[in-house]
Design goal:
This protein is mainly α. It has 3 domains: 109 residues, no CATH class; 153 residues, Intergrase catalytic core (hpI Integrase, Chain A, Orthogonal Bundle); 38 residues, no CATH class. Strand 2 and strand 3 form a beta hairpin.
Amino acid sequence: MAPEQKRNVHPTRDDDVCQIIEYGWVEAVKRPSCGVKGQIGTDDSVGGAGSPFRRMPSRTEGGLQPAHQPFLTVTRPLSQENTPTILTILIKMKNDGRSDHTIRNTSKLLKYLNNHANLNDPETVKTFIASLDRTDGYKRNLCIAYNKWCKHNQIQWEMPQYQENSQLIKIPTKEKVQMLIANAGTTLATKMTLSMETGLRPVELCRLTVKDLEQRLVYPHTAKHGAPRTLKMSNHLTELLTTHIASHDLNPTDKLFKGDSDYYGKKYRAKRNQLAKKLQDPTIKQIRLYDLRHYFATMLYHKTKDILHVKAQMGHKKLQTTLIYTQLLSLNEDEWTCKTATNITEATQLIEAGFEYVTEIDDTKLFRKRK
């Protein structure tokens, strides 16, 4: 639709509401800052930047008005029926403090079910989910989203017990991670290096502000209700971030990087797929952005052999979540670089370079470091 065009939308049916959500439109929670047509709230508000509600219309006496003009003109408010819609479920999730990522996923899953089944008929929904050629983990997520619909509509149903299949995490090699970073632009390469060296979740990385960095330390806002933590940075990463902050003229309260985790993921996948095509290496396309976090945890465990330290650095609340990293790599001899030192100066240089002491043979100290 051309920018100068307008059309009226009468969201009187559920499919109209879903259509509005499809365009990125959600009814704003009634609050003073939404009283002005086109007004957008702060980052932490319902209509804040980076929020799935950024483009939602504001409620006024004349109905709902779009936040970005011109797009849609809604001539009357959403239906006030007793049966909650997808729209009201999303608003309640926002009011309950659920993350924007969770709200977006719930919206997608409910819209998908709504397009293929009658949401008011649980048996139809269960039959459709069971017929899908998808993983049990995805089916479980569909059931969790539909359960929200049933709860709001007071619909009784017996939720199927799909269990997410356990699958061993694949850890990318250091060589391929470095290739990905080298192929990225300056800002994306800085973000990927930060992910690799600190194990930050993408959403945590994108929440960082300049003041969350102090010398060679990072103080992230932990996601998934995890434990708070402090992470160390290498001199190389510190220099990258210092240059990034200076080149973008950032203030202490500014976000370190523009965009949210979805934007980060989109940019990463584009560069990754580009590199895979260039090198004709399909295995590169299998490296997910989240695998940089797994890479950090695995390397940290095999370096320290301290599972509690890894748990703390990952921000995990449960030790069971961390234990998987003890199984991911076999430490074969060909995975190490070995060096020797015959005096204190040489030994000090090797330790500063990340090598660890192994043993001493014929007055020569042996050191090793993972490749």
